Queue: 2 jobs
Job 1
Amino acid sequence: MAYVSVKGGADAIAQAKELVEYYRLKDKTKPIEIEQIKSQFRLAIDKIMGEGSLYAPEYAAIAFKQMEGDVLESAFVLRAFRATLQRKYYSDILDTRNMFVKRKISSSFREIPGGQVLGPTRDYSQRLIDSTKYNESEQEIENFLSSFEGKIEKEKMQEITSFNKVIDLLKAEGLLMPAESNYDKTVKDVTLEAVKYPAPRSVTLQMLARGETGGLMTLAYSSMRGFGDGHGTIGELRYGSVKVLVSDTQGRKRYIGNVNLTECEMITKINTTKEAKIPYFAIGYGLVLGQNETKAICMSILERGIRSGKSENPANNQEFVLYHTEGVEAMGFTNHLKLPHYVTFQSGLNNLRESVKRNTNIQDEKMKVYKEMAKQFQK
């Protein structure tokens, strides 16, 4: 079934919208509930919230369902929705040192404060397709959960504590590079203010945090391969929940809930120069909504590269990185090519035809001259 032709204008748009819904529903499968999407597509929802710049799992799940699983389109819709919301408060600075840790690892040290906590990860499993998921039943889910809960040794469970950070070990030895003297501490809100370059670090962190995961990974990978500031080592990668506090009109702190975050601190080496004769380690920082470790790692690589001052490399150039990892804007500009460009194309087409015609006439005149010269030569 398909429309062979459609009317122009509003009718065509309405019919196109109907067709989208038809293709989503035509197989008459059971509707997927929002709670199912939130829980069983957890990582996709986290990615949508991060790139959509709004921590709202329910709305991210609705967007995911509406856009048939297209994460970038979902982030586009979520960000558009966010733009309609009234902003009443700014939260206090989130304290990730007091994160309720669900996963915590370091590639730099075997022994770290609180130990390595592998948590939920596929890093140590083979990426093999599991065909049993095809006919997964509710009973199988219940059996798995019951079995898992039976393995928990409750008598060994300890009181929840926070952990010191790996970078504290380096700070204690004086191995971390001191803060740059020209460090711009200006705090700007990229959702309310136009970005001007060079931008302060607050802008870099905001734009990277809501950047498109694939775009960040592409540039970070180029940096690791030599087109940037080099190959760092993960000092610490954390995933967990952090309390969010806001101040009311009377200045009282109010707890409004928790957000899940992934934090990465990347250690890179700073070589000596004539001006700086002492080598140091430097830290690249990444913090993103939900569990999105790839993005947090890539963000920390690019954030450090931007501050390196070696802007001749694409992955270190602030304007290049921030503009070209802005997924929603990039997708909008790319897809605008599908819109009518009849007038501009016809203008270029007419110019090309005229140019070809003029050059053809010139070539014809030259050929006449050459032929006359050839005749004279033969005589």
Job 2
Amino acid sequence: MGKYEELHQLVSSFETDFRKFYEKQNKAAGTRVRKHMGELKKFAQSVRQEVQEVKQKMKDEGK
């Protein structure tokens, strides 16, 4: 579950900037939110790739 914990920490680290942008309308925080979303996208893509590799490995071992 290491990836889940990593995801949880990543999302939790975004909270301050999200609150500043959505609750206090801080424009600079909005820029950081966009940056955070890019980081999340990269992380999600790496997890998707890892899952695909594990599935392929499981399939190959089953032969």
